[in-house]
Prior knowledge:
The complex is a heterodimer of chains A (408) and B (394). By secondary structure, chain A is mainly beta. Helix content of chain A is 6%, strand content 55%.
Amino acid sequence: MKKYLFLPVFLFALVANAQIDSTLLKRVPVDTSYTRAMNMDAVYNRPFLQIGNLPASIGGYVEADYQYMGQDGITEGHSFRIPRFTLFVASSIHRKIKFLSEIELEEGGKQISIEFAALDLTFHPLLNLRGGVVMNPIGAFNQNHDGPKWEFVDRPIAMTEMLPATWSNVGFGLYGKYYSKAWAFGYEAYLTNGFDNSIISNNQNKTFLPAAKENALRFEESSNGQPLFTGKIAVRNNKVGEIGLSYMGGIYNRFEEDGLVLDAKRRLDVLAVDFNTTISATKTYLVGEWAWVLVDVPETYSQQYGERQKGGFVDIVQPILRGKLAGFDKAVFSLACRLEYVDWNVGSFEETGGNISDDLWAVVPAISFRPVSQTVIRLNYRYMQQQDILGNPPAKIGGVQFGLSSYF
Amino acid sequence: MKKLILILLGCLAFACENIIPEPPAVDEILDGPIDGLNSSEQARFLAGDFAFNDEVFSSGTGLGPTFVATSCGSCHAGDGKGHPFTTLTRFGQTAPNTPPNLLIGGPQLQNRAIPGYTPEILPEGTPFMKLTPPAVTGLGLLSALTDEQILTNADPYDLDGDGISGVPNYVNPPAYFVPKWFHQDANGRYMGRFGKKAATIDLLQQTVSAYNQDMGITSTFEPVDPFSGLEVDPEVSDQTVRDVVFYLRTLKAPIQRSQNDQQIIQGKTLFSQIQCGDCHTPEWTTPTSDIVALSNKTFFPYTDLLLHDMGPGLDDGVTEGSAETFEWRTPPLWGLGLSPNSQGGSYFLMHDGRASSIEEAILLHGGEANSSRTKFESLSAEDRTALIRFLESL
């Protein structure tokens, strides 16, 4: 834990030092080729601050929010949270070698995690080697999850609880991009450490991929000696948008130990499709993602833990005011709405043939105000219905959420 | 446009009072404590509520290795009746007053297993009974009754000649059982009042047994792991077990709906006229209890907590305690109409969920209930509807 704490403290010290003389600070702007950037570029497509002649740039973002939520008429009252405080450090070792790390403190420091810490070596635009702690490119949200980029206080449930964003692992892989006029093509392929038995043996009472994140040892060794493959291809047209298709799969369980067979080898396979586009006539921004999860659950285990899951979300963001607002020259005021759905357990009961429910849907209308592009103030109303495995009358959850998020 | 923004913000501010989804009507849900608990009792209720409804066991916290369900709430969703998904299978005792055959894996089948283990399989040709999980509401009121009160309805030899017996199930208590002032010792055995065969004496035994047999969770009360047959370290604390018992004792009783509806009043009269109430005793009053909120309360469970011959159609050839294989405890009818809310929108009634409607359940009654069933069959369609509506209102 000490080594995890040291880095944030060190970074704070750097920031504090920089505050003495602001002329030392140099803002490294967001990639100016943003229109050509793809989701796979998200980790580098962030604002950074360079300090004097130091070879490193730093950055980060913070999220703070308030919520008043309730379920079936019962509320826990007013609650203030700081769900995330994230620090980035980037460094160019050579024009073709760069390093970036992302350290996240969640829930006020309750959980500190390395979300990204990888070295990138460029041999050719189509051939880059990445090694370290990488974000597995499953879907788009896992790599493109920074709070300031979104108009909603909560992250999409399907992408953070069904898919386990942020899902990072130690490993190596290749990636590359190819541009042709308005088109961009990108690919990524990684082998990393992966999941473990906890995805079907946890206190959530359902197949729950994020349970594997609790295993801190996954940054030191694989739980079963089997690499997890994650691959993605994506195509972007500057006038149309981007679509990505990704896959993640491998053996998830510990099937043997010390040469002794404990269980059969059991696979996990995840397929995801993501897209984003802007309707040019109305400047309406659409972004969404959908994923399917297939897990080999032992037949003799409980159907409580589903073999199949599916879910996703779509965000519709409509800017309605742009320009000088409240003293900010390029402010944007938007209306937005998120629709999300997750089916934690796709299938039917062996005993009755009836549908296994265990699903939820939510609608989240929102208002957002961006005084500058890197800062967002957002007000959401969340309404959600959640059914248990039997399909009994759903729990109805609703409330308001107000928050702000900004890169710094 | 700025006006539009102000209007939107204004609407949101006015909506604040109504932003939390409306609670369901109090008589439409089974969850919730009885009235009159003091603050320390409320805190204990919450602790038990958490352990019962939210604590999920996994292989890392002691589940199994063989089991039926992963949590209490898996079987008793919303504290109501269960679904065939978590039906229990019991076997091993085929005659009254004989010990269950533990050598073949009795008394309960653990039909699921954590990865890497093999679940129990029912020995071929062995008689068995399937038991749908019951609702758990109002159990504290039933547990507060005295044995003497319950025995006032017993008539094992049908001395009154009404065709209805009412037999107590005397069972051997577990080692940790401590009799209360209202339990009567019958040569070392005690009267059971919980479970489909009334083979469980009190809610501590019910809770300990469910942890052990349903989830494979050992405790200091029941330290033997059902898979290995060996004593292992406790996997649930005494405090948690007792919190769950307290929770079960203090769950409110189901509240009857639409009591003043004329058709439901008519149905209630018919219920009495065709003698359903001879076994499904409507009204009871508790004596003084150690929980003040349970003391001297009149309540309406529609059960006599006694065993009755239900005929060959409901004889599974398996039993518990001193009950005959064809005898079943009169199940409480309170909360009956809310069963679909915990059974996934359908009815799974009778001991094994074989009846998919209240009417079908009535028509499956045999043995001592033959007379009432025949009278039900002879009712006009209008009267049948009234009776069913009354039962749905409970």
